[in-house]
Amino acid sequence: MASTFAILADPSRREILDLLRTGERPVGDLVDRLTLTQPTVSKHLKVLREAGLVDVRQDAQRRWYRLRPQPLAEIDAWLAPYRRMWEHSLDALERHLDTMPEDSTPDDSTPNDSTPNGTTADDSAEGTTP
Amino acid sequence: MASTFAILADPSRREILDLLRTGERPVGDLVDRLTLTQPTVSKHLKVLREAGLVDVRQDAQRRWYRLRPQPLAEIDAWLAPYRRMWEHSLDALERHLDTMPEDSTPDDSTPNDSTPNGTTADDSAEGTTP
DNA sequence: GGGCAATATAGCCGGATTGACATACTCAAG
DNA sequence: CTTGAGTATGTCAATCCGGCTATATTGCCC
């Protein structure tokens, strides 16, 4: 799983996966739609293959690549514990972005032990301080 | 979203997020548990901050960092179209692989439920614009 | 077998990134 | 105003990565 994030970090690779979502394709087809050269695409495919994100089927000279979603499932699993956080209060978050009220998540479980005190009251937001 | 994958690609950063999952923490606390130096942690926090993955609250000299799940939600959204692929039929997909004897799951009860495709391959794939 | 089509591999380069160290900044307490 | 805690920033070395060009490999077809 660790490396899957690194692999998805590249836009070209995500694009390849997106293309393969509709079904398997030969390399040349991918090259046609991506603005990359064939060797570059092959290199990406190698990376994806070694990560288990795609699978190849050989048909004469042509090699049909197909998506293998399993590693993505692991990413999904990694996300699981976090998912609660936005499922829990999505609207509250949006409201927060829009108007910046003053307070947010009601759950303050300070990990340490010393509840700092008043809880939150974040309003600092995006103050880019140069 | 694009950059969120790149940010999650770093194990230290994922570790930081994991630590923040239980609640906000000051920098020193993170430094204590990560085997990194304080400047390095601060640097990672800066990256996370600029990506909107964490948020800071200042309390005297101490800065409490807190998780902001929204970018993770976007990752989740990106995953959505793929999710069907494994949720729908993981075993069937593996069986569908050409001749992979590895599956060996003797009792596939999904008789003919939903052959994932058969079609796949829109071979019209050639790039010539329609 | 020769030639062509399709893909993979090798090698190179520029740029980005991570880590540590040293240093600057900020705030509260005397 | 000085000090010390807490954190941020700057710099440097090492490493990794994505893209390209050139070349090797494989397999059909004549």
UniProtKB/TrEMBL annotation, chains A, B:
CDD domains recorded: HTH_ARSR
Biased composition (Low complexity): 107-117
Keyword list, A-Z: DNA-binding, Transcription, Transcription regulation
Any one Pfam family match given in the protein's UniProt record, by short name: HTH_5
Compositional bias annotation for Polar residues: 118-130
All residue ranges annotated as the HTH arsR-type domain in the record: 1-87
Sequence segments annotated as region (Disordered): 97-130
Domain of life: Bacteria
Gene Ontology molecular function: any one: DNA binding
NCBIfam families: HTH_metalloreg
Record's protein name: ArsR family transcriptional regulator
UniProt source species: Umezawaea tangerina
